[in-house]
Structure formats: structure tokens, C-alpha cells
Amino acid sequence: MIPSFDDWRSVPERWRGGVVALGNFDGVHRGHQALIGRAAEQAAASGGPVVALTFEPHPRRFFVPDTGPFRLTLPAAKRRLLEQHGVQALLAQRFDQAFADLPPDAFVDDVLLQGLGARHVVCGYDFTFGARRGGNVERLREKGAAQGFGVTVLDPVTHEGEIYSSTRIREALRAGWVSEAAELLGHAWEIEGTVEQGDQRGRTIGFPTANVALGEHLRPRFGVYAVRALIEGEADWRPAVANLGRRPTFGKLKENFEIHLLDFAGDLYGKVLRVALVDLIRPEMKFAGLDQLKAQIAADGEAARRLLAI
After folding, report:
1. What is the DSSP letter of 280?
2. Helix (H) or strand (E) run with residue 153 in it
3. Residue 297: φ, ψ to 5°
4. CA–CA separation, 66 vs 287, rounded Å?
5. Please, are residues 195 and 268 in contact by the beta-carbon 8 Å criterion?
6. Quick check: helix, strand or coil at residue 1?
7. pTM higher than 0.90 for the full model?
8. Closest CA relative to residue 157, chosen from 123, 121, 120
9. What is the set of active-site residues?
10. First CA to last CA across the chain, in angstroms?
11. Are 79 and 90 in contact, with CB atoms under 8 Å apart?
């Protein structure tokens, strides 16, 4: 895993003097991938590492703390995806009040130049920075020209006239359009978390499930999904079926994400599970009783097998 730092003052010398890719990179979608690719091209031409500068928590969470869960990628997944696309080190800058109050010029002078020693920066056309979003790409270009670092601003990356955006991907997932979200992302969308102790109700009806906390992950449409799951420490993804919702049959109010691994027997408690959504099988339903529920769960399992081609 690439090295990661949480403050611009703690970046080691070996990761300074390179090309800095700027953005939140939530989802690391195709637009982000194009930006990172441009940064890698620039690094190949000018030398130095490719470093991504992003922010934790997401500024939206900092400024609107009571907003609902919206993240497409939590830190571990984002770091892994950034590495896959060519980033060599990550500054996941701690976004607190002091950082939010940095004037735009101080963001450039202190963070980009003093902290990262940036030779070149790459950002999207709509990138803003500094207190009250006072800095924009025009100001970044001006600073670059005055202080001797290069600036590349990426135009909108589009597909069939539509801009790749985290907002559009969130909308697709909330509608249950898993394949559309995956196409926009350039990879399957995942929920990743530690398997927690549940009420073990699934065991009593013959369908044991692994319960994964949703945390800050976006909530896609509630329902049953065909998924693939990767168990911590394993190399191969396993076919599975997952239920996301509030379990209306049992009167539960808490949101649950429960995964049943097909043709698997084993203890998963405490292990990290990555769950990649493949397709929505059906929306969340309420059943008249246990027998009806068991019959539907069996049907869901068969539907998952067909969708996963097993």
C-alpha cells in the first residue's frame, strides 16, 4: 500500500518535488483516473513522484456535519484505488478548522510549495481551495506563473455528453442502477468493513450472513443484490448475495448490510470484507411470515447464481 500522510508538514523529503494531483477523489471514477493519468504523464516528463492531495474528513462532512452518509470510497478503498491508477504517495490532509481557515495563497505557498515542493500541479476545471473557496484555477495559474511551478487544468471528462462526476454516481446507486454506477466509476462499487456480531437470525433459517457496518458509505437503494465478496487474507473473490435495508419483516429500524456467501462455511467475525455490488435482484420487501421469507431468500440465492454465472 502506498504511504499516506495526514498533514502537509509531515511529508518526507522523498515525496517532495513531484507532481501533485489535487481533488477529493471520492469514488476514484473515470474523470479522476484521467486526472491522475495526466499527472503521471507530467511526472514522467519532469521527474519526481506522483502525489495525490485529498482531504479527510471530506470537506462536505466538516462543513455540514449532520449531512447523511454520502461517501463512495472510505480512506482505505480510496488509497488502494489511487495506487492502482498510478499515485505513489498520498497526502490525506486532515481537514480541521485551522486548515479550513487557510487563505488561498497560503494553501499554495505553505501546502503545495513548502509542504510538497510541487513542481507541477494537476486539477480539475472546477477545483477551488482556501478559506471560503476563495481560490480557483485562474488564481492557481497566476501563482504558478509567478512562483515557477506548472499548472495543468483538466477540462470536464465526458461520456456521451455527460460529465463523469461523483454526484451522478451517487444518484445511480440510490436508484439501484449498479451497472451504470460501475460504468461511470470504471470499476465495481464496493462497501468495505469489518464483520460484526449480528443477531444470528440467518443461521436459524439456514442462511448465515456476515454483518458489515455501513459507516460513512453512501446508502444505495435498499434491496437484495448479487455481489462478490473478498475476505481479508484471501486472493479470490467469492460469489454472494447481500441484503441492504432495515429488515422490515422483523421490524428492525437499524440499517443492515448482510452478506451470505454462497457455498461457504466459516467464521468471518472480526475480518474485513470487501463487497462489490454486481446487480440489484429486487427491492426491499416485507413478508407475511418466516416461510415466505425463507422461500424468497432461496429464490434470491438462485437469482444471484444466474447473475454471477455460477
Report:
1. E
2. strand 150-154
3. -60, -40
4. 33
5. yes
6. coil
7. yes
8. 123
9. 258
10. 32
11. yes
pLDDT at residue number 199:
59
**CATH class for the domain made up of 4-162:** alpha beta
pLDDT of 249 higher than 70: no
Lowest mean pLDDT among 81-90, 112-121, 124-133, 251-260: 251-260
pLDDT tens digits for range 7-19: 999 999 999 999 9
Banded model confidence at residue 310, pLDDT cuts 50, 70, 90:
confident
Q: How far is CA 20 from the centre of its chain?
A: 20
The DSSP bridge partners found for residue 89 are 51
CATH number for the region 189-307 comes to 2.40.30.30
Helical (H) or strand (E) element with 298: helix 290-307
How far apart are alpha carbons 223 and 240 in whole angstroms?
Answer: 14
Q: Residue 145, exposed/middle/buried by CB under 10 A (0-12, 13-18, 19+)? A: exposed
Cα separation, 32 vs 308, whole angstroms:
28
Instruction: Count the alpha carbons within 13 Å of 199 in the hemisphere toward its beta carbon.
Output: 8
Q: What is the dihedral of CA 177, 272, 15, 116, to 10 degrees?
A: 60
DSSP 135: B
Q: How far apart are CA 78 and CA 135, in angstroms?
A: 25
| R_g of the chain computed on alpha carbons | 22
| Beta-strand pair 256-261/190-196 | unpaired
In sequence order, the β-bridge partners of residue 175 are none
Can you tell me which residue has the cell 504523464?
41
On whether the CB atoms of residues 210 and 261 are closer than 8 A, the answer is: yes
Ranges of each domain in the chain:
4-162, 189-307
pLDDT digits (tens, 9 = 90+) for 109-131: 999 999 999 999 999 999 999 99
Instruction: Take residue 302 and report the three cell numbers written for it.
Output: 438462485
